[in-house]
Amino acid sequence: MHGFARLGQVEEAEAWMLRAESLGLEPTVVSYTSLVDACAKSGQPGSALRFLRQADQKALATSATYQAAIDACAKQGFVSDAEGLFQEMQDAAFSGESFRFARWSDQLLAWDAAATTQSIISSPIKTLIT
Asked: What is the reported pLDDT for 106?
């Protein structure tokens, strides 16, 4: 599954995860994060959000899962969705985890969202930065 995800082949990766589930294996944090990242690589923010929500429902979402979903949205110009996910991630305050803002800040800037990027940069996110 992870091999397909690394290549951005979302449908194939999801098929392998479903196959594993049919055999009684439970998806992990890594499984969902890989799927969300595959969506970012292949330009599928809607699928990224779907997998993020599934991970959330199973208490398997981490800051890395959110970062991949933010990346998926930002790369396609869905700035308000990226902002909303950032706020959700901030509210969740994943303890002990770091957030790499630079991964998607360039995408927001590319979509002419400099003011948004500046407001996020200046927001208090000390608990998320190591």
From this structure: 54
Residue 31 has pLDDT above 70, yes or no: yes
Distance CA 69, CA 59 (A): 16
Domain housing 28: 2-128
What is the amino acid identity at position 49?
A: L
Q: Tokens for 105?
A: 């800040």
Q: Which two tokens stand for residue 19?
A: 């196959």
Q: Between 125 and 110, whose confidence is greater?
A: 110
Mean per-residue pLDDT of the chain: 78
Nearest to 52, CA basis, from 67, 104, 43: 67
Residue 78 contacts residue 52 (beta carbons within 8 Å): no
Confidence (pLDDT) at 7: 79
Query: For the chain, where are the alpha helices, taking DSSP H only?
Result: 2-6, 10-22, 29-42, 45-57, 63-75, 79-92, 102-110, 114-121
CB 82 within 8 A of CB 67: no
Count up the domains in the chain and report the number: 1
Alpha-carbon gap, residue 110 to 104, rounded angstroms: 10
